Amino acid sequence: MVGDIKVFNIDNAKIKKDLGLEFLTDFRKGLEMTVEWARDFFTTK
Known about the structure:
Elements: H1 13-19, H2 27-43
């Protein structure tokens, strides 16, 4: 579809530099953990 974003990349270097934040979990692992949590949370209710 026109206007759809095909690829989305993020660079967290500015966050690290400006805010001094350091991420403990990489994005892919964090996403996997979030999906696993959501599956458990919404299927047990």
